[in-house]
Automatic annotation (TrEMBL):
The protein, known as: DUF551 domain-containing protein
Species, as recorded: Neglectibacter timonensis
DUF551 domain ranges (all copies): 81-143
Length: 147
């Protein structure tokens, strides 16, 4: 499944404790331990407790890791997710994609480039996303919205 040690912190949620807290820029955000801090030019740094990094989605506390693992175990057990290790979509189109086994996006898949986030008409797959771990077909719209 997912392991704490294999999901590195992003540049915004580094857990090494060596943040320098000099004056920041207006509206600057920093994540440290289990809180997000923002700089206000009148009041300085102010913070609020959070469980997940809002920039990369990484859990910040042991409780958040436990909750994430519970959600993923239950979700994967009953879902239609397909691992990219097993196969990729056969046709170009829009698919629900899972990045790093956590973040969900609707992305276009190019059968020509065999990559997500690019199109068949692209000469090269310049903006492809390489850390997609799973994908699934988009669900049908609710019947009241179907043509």
């Amino acid at each position: 499944m997912i392991e704490n040690t294999k999901w590195p912190s992003c540049e915004r949620c580094i857990q090494d404790g060596c943040l320098e807290w000099e004056d920041g820029m207006p509206h600057e955000f920093r994540v440290h331990e289990d809180a997000i801090y923002y700089f206000d030019r009148h009041y300085g740094w102010e913070g609020e407790t959070i469980s997940f990094c809002p920039f990369c989605g990484r859990p910040l506390t042991d409780e958040a890791w436990t909750e994430l693992k519970k959600r993923l175990e239950g979700h994967y057990a009953t879902s239609d997710w397909i691992s990219v290790k097993d196969r990729l979509p056969e046709e170009s189109g829009d698919y629900l994609a899972l990045q790093n086994s956590v973040n969900q996006y609707v992305l276009h898949f190019s059968s020509r480039h065999q990559a997500f986030n690019c199109y068949d008409f692209d000469e090269i797959a310049k903006y492809k996303i390489t850390d997609i771990t799973h994908w699934m077909e988009l669900p049908e719209p609710p019947k009241e919205f179907a043509p």
